Amino acid sequence: MESANSYFLPVDFVIFGGILFICAAIGVYFAYKDRKVQTTENYYFGRRNVSPISVAMSLSVSYISAITVIGNPVEVYLYGTVYAWTVVANLIGFIAASIYYIPLYHRLRIKSVYEYLGRRFHSRIRSFASTMAMLKLTFYLGITVYLPSLALSAVTPLELNWTIALTSIFCTFYTSIGGMKAVIWTDVLQGVIMIAGMLAIFIQAIIMYGGFGPIMDAADRGDRNNLLKLDIDPRVRSTVWTIGGALALNTCYLSCCSQVTTQRYLSCNSVRSSRIAALLQWIPGTIMVLLSIANGLVMYAYYEGCDPLLSGAIEKNDQAMPRLALKIFQDLPGMAGMFTSAAFSGTLSTISSGVNSLSALALEDFVIPCFPAMSTTRKMIFSKVLAVVFGGVIMGIAYTVSLLSSNIIQINMITGAVGTPILSVFTMGMFMPWINSWGALSGMISGIVCGSWVALASINQATYPATTESLPVSTSNCTLTNFLHNASTTSFTGVSEDTTTLESMSTISDEYGSVLQYTLYSMSPFVYGTFAFFVSIIVGHIVSLVTGFNKVSEADPDLFVPVINCKILRFGIPEKSSRGIAENSKDNVFINSCCTGDDCSQNSPDSPHNEIKGTVF
């Protein structure tokens, strides 16, 4: 690792600490301002009157975390600019949410997104899906805590364990006391900081190299300028199709049926405002992604010929970006602190959003069903206690992630094997009225099991070279002082140092298991979610066929969304519900006329009229 003279300067600590202080102050401010409005409606939804512009910024940074600031440049450094197709995958998810999901959620006025599954299928499916989503989100948040903690440990004398604890405790503090309004407004601030930090790296690099041309020349020499990589083999790790296409299903889960995003949609006062927020989020999100892609090219130009991992300058690839910030800003005190603040801001926004949503899910899907008569005061106490508990769990997961050696983007893609099967259940529920509860549950479980099996097995069993190998990096231009341990000066073509092992694995004689290693286990990590999604859909149809399809004529139209609103694609479902739900023609929102306050009752997920005849657990 670097010597102590590569650590933060005092001015860096001042900038970094000042930004953290402002974020904490926002949480304290809203906790004080809303001290007399102690309701879950305010704590989780901001009384449903938040500006769509603020919500859009909050949405854009909720899942654009330190993974974007630190992880994405490493992805480009190792695999090239083809990763930029994530902006297309994101747009597909946002459009789907705007057209189909947002009107449905406003119509039903749900608090937990999985309440829909309870109404459409059964309360047990709601509970199972909510549990899986909470596990997925908790693991994802652990990753986002780990990355900036790793960055901070690389630029300060603090050890990784202490920086993980600092990050977790700070995020949990202002989230638990301030609620949704604190989360949204700190997200706005943190989004600005993230853009400023990434832009600072890029501008400084342009000044250093005298323009963007030399950076692109380095990218061409290293084969990093591969934006139009059109290989259709799903085993090739990064292509236009695996990222711009297959990854879109992961984005659809995050944009359409994640509690984090749904809470923000429902924080707006109408379908129109929610749709504006959903589509506007693509603008700041795209700016951040493209800046991270550009910084990946900067990283390659800077480290061309002297890879920091092989030379021993860093211990993990994910430390490369913080080290680059220290190096190029060494004559500009405070700027390294600004960049690290950008990485931390990404984590603060994601953790605050996630902890708030985890608390909402636990309360609405598990606590309230067991204690339906709970008072508003007790609900608030439970909400804040749950936020603290989840903060502690996330900290523990971050410690666990720090022990893993896989690339952080690949670890994150493994969680897609859980998210897309949940998306499949919403897909079957909204667009396929013939699917019954047994089919939905079996499909979701099958997708999660098969997707997780392939994702976990591929870590050590993938043998197809294009799945595991990165683009070449080299140490041929390093001086002897760059080496802190023995490293080869030849090209390196893998995320880990197991190149020899991978080559030997690919020559294993044909025996039981080798075909799986070369095919199924060698799928690109960006395809895991797509594989799990289609397994769920297929199994859901098979089981529904065996147990008896639902009678489409008895389906509740309030729970159904046609892909195209025409008579044929409604499959015989009437256009309006027979129950007392009025339509607001201006915003196309259905509102239950008897639901007005914080504790307004929703139709019970277990009530007989919500379960389609012929489907019984």
Strand and helix order: HHHHHHHHHHHHHHHHHHHHHHHEE
Mean pLDDT figure: 79
Q: Give the end-to-end Cα distance, rounded to a whole number of Å.
A: 58 Å
pLDDT under 50 segments (min length 5)?
Answer: 1-5, 483-513, 578-617
Widest β-sheet, arrangement of strands: 1-2
- Helix content percent band: 55-70%
Number of β-strand runs: 2
Q: How large is the share of residues in beta strands?
A: under 5%
Which structural class is indicated by helix and strand composition? mainly alpha
Summarize this, please?
With 617 residues, the protein is mainly α. Helix content is 63%, strand content 1%. A two-stranded antiparallel sheet has the order 1-2.
Structure description:
This protein has 617 residues and is an all-alpha fold. The chain is built from 23 helices and two strands. It has helices at 10-33, 40-45, 52-62, 66-79, 86-108, 115-120, 123-155, 160-209, 213-221, 240-256, 259-265, 271-280, 282-303, 320-328, 335-370, 376-401, 408-414, 416-431, 437-461, 465-468, 499-505, 514-518, 528-547; strands at 582-584, 589-591. It has a two-stranded antiparallel ribbon. A hairpin with a 4-residue loop joins β1 (582-584) and β2 (589-591).
